Amino acid sequence: MKILGYSERGIINSLIFSIGEDKTLMREFIRLINIPEIEESHNIITDYTILLEQSFSRFGDSDLVIILEYENPKEKKVLFIEGKVKTSQSKKWHLERQFEKFEREEKYTGSSSNLFFQLYLKKLLFDNCTLNDFDKGIKELRYKENRKIGNNPVVLEAVKLLLNCKEAYYIGLIPASESDIEKFGRKADFDIHFLSWERVYDFCVKEEKLKKVIEIFEFNEGQIF
Predict the structure, then answer these.
(1) In Å, what is the CA distance from 102 to each residue of 2, 86, 98, 107?
(2) For a tag on the chain, would you pick the N or C end, based on fewer CB atoms within 10 A?
(3) Model confidence over 117-127: pLDDT tens digits?
(4) pTM attached to this predicted model
(5) Nearest partner of 173 among 204, 187, 194, judged by Cα
């Protein structure tokens, strides 16, 4: 039997389910992002909570959320990861253009598929992560109404998982080369880290357990590389 998934979500889902409960493999995947603050020597990661395609209501969906649990329970951290692919007709996906669209003067009137905007909404969510604030709504200049979390019990459970996290990191999983990422010198109002699909693919090739993910990469080849 062959099971194939479409686009960024298909690859992410395959990757996470292939890693499964292998904490060592999960740690190696997270190391690809290269965030030194995550690998602090004085406090060891002991567990992970993974949310796939999680809705945060008016703050948008998230392709992948990883909550890192440490020996010191007060040191929990969260990674918000948004995946992007290019269309099969496009020769290249441009990080610079994504940033320019985010920075342009005209404001978004609703939800957007822009990488920076999606991650910006997750920062807005995390920085105001108290249920009382969500009842009133959070003001966001690009939207005509305050953004609210709503009453969906599953969404509220996901938000509760974030309440005890000390820090958040925002990651774009993108179809850009490592050299293009290095050349990108523009910064939004908050720190964003980037991880190339190319690097994830190389990681999957090296790991025997992740051969099925390679099949999904190959199925989506025109949108990834």
Answers:
(1) 39, 17, 6, 9
(2) N
(3) 999 999 999 99
(4) 0.93
(5) 194
